[in-house]
Amino acid sequence: FKKLMRVDSTESLQSLGAYYSESFGKLALCCICLGLALGLPGDAGGSSNLIPLPAVQIRAMSVIRDHSDGAHFKVVGGALTNTHASMNSAIVDSRLVLNGSSHEFVSSTFHDAVYCVASRVLRPVWLRPVVSGGQVSEIWTAELISQVSAPLLELMKLLQGYYPTVIMTAHSPAGGLQSDEMDSRLVTSQMLAASQANRVMNPEKVLHQKAKHLEDESISNIYRLASRSVQALSLIGLLTSLQTQWKVQIEWTALPDLLSFRSLVVSASVHDIVKKMLNALIHNACKSEKHGVAAAMNNAINVMTEQCYHYFSAGDWYTYMAARKIETLRSKTNLVASGGSYFHATAFNVRDSIGKEVEQLATECVEFVIQSAKHWNIAEHVVGVHSELFKACAELMSFRFEVMFLGVVDLCLAAASSFLQLSRKRFDGGLAGSRASGGMVPYSPHALASASTADKWDLGLYHGGSAMNDCDVKRAVDACYTCLAEQIVHVRSLNVGGHEEVKGSAGDLMDSDHSYSSENNTRIMSDMIQRALSSCSEQAMHIALYTILLDRNELELLLAIRSAHLE
Questions:
Q1: Which residues pair with 103 in a beta bridge?
Q2: For the chain, give me the number of helices (H) and strands (E)?
Q3: Using CA atoms, how far apart are residues 73 and 378, in angstroms rounded to an integer?
């Protein structure tokens, strides 16, 4: 990463910017300035390292703005003609239109400089293998990881600071014209149609908006690439540290041999493999009896949710914690049953210390599962009986605790609300006002909720979050409401205990005729319905609930519903 050009100070660039622009070209000048702004190594004896980086960035960006051409469309094979001279034109005023010409998109100098510098940083490692012979490749030292990730982090901060609307609006339908095609005839037809529909619309302004939208999307892509690359580098460094310092066994063999850094960054199939590897690693390490290993893994989980959330997000952390709580709860309930007493679904003996502990565990399970659902951002998480939503509902209802039944209601509504919020944020032009913080956020379950990917402005760049279209959002929301309704009517077929605590063996409990009653199932279903109606005012949910109750002939429960949507 050594520059060969003599200039490495922003003072000389500010004073001699015009000279360097004429001598080397505007692109070379912008690349030099951007390299200085990112803190790339300067020439021997240079003075740039003596100036604080924020001051360098301000000066460098000032030079870039003075000598950078903006994004625009270049006319090829034709010329601008006056409509009075064109008898075939449908527009009869004096506005300029394009006649018999095509258009070529030309990106801004700053845009090209960003791509050049980012490519220069990533090129040395892009095709290098991460895994070789079942182990991490020896080239991935802490020094190399730092050299590559540091300028990429500065590039991300620079884009966030100087171009805050680029990432937020690039993939929003409100961020530009609807078409993403580069076909010049479509651009021309949009200009003509807009001019015919609204005489005030300037065709040149239409082209300018189209050019800006295309460039915003391109800068968004390079931001996404930089962010994913930094997270991949952080993951490699973290796993290597666990292996060398804490002797944690990393199953590198789970990854394809000679896996390149490029695949680790951009391959969806590799991402799925890495997620499975991390889940297995966490599960095994947290049970390790080696001194300090469990604590080190807990710290690693905290780091991953902050620095590698593309591979292990806050939602993954909540899922992991929910699984741990459910495992503990299952062991506790088995212990209670085998010990001669059983706590029913509708009531706990709160005077019993074991009952209090079980109730607390059950409540925590529900809370973690709901928090995990708030990070579901693709329709496949909730659509179908094999989705995460259906599996979570089945897991909660298997315990037959009242808090679990009501938790199923909260879970389905939270998942639907998450998709509705994604849709609303997308149409508001992005996650405005939720800029990513520059420093690390102190880790805690409560702090994590505000520092998670759900609150970061680049959520839509991961796992297809804000890229969902209207049909996908509606399909996901409808699936959540349908799942809720089906789980409520499913209670009818379950063996749900009564209010009293039944003493005796687990076998005696199952054979007791008075342990279960249809009235108790009806009461729980009614409680779930009232919970849903009081928590959600969305008409789609009310209709889904009404429809399935009618189909299952639950007329008593149906007539008890008081909803303005069903009058």
A1: 75
A2: 21, 8
A3: 35
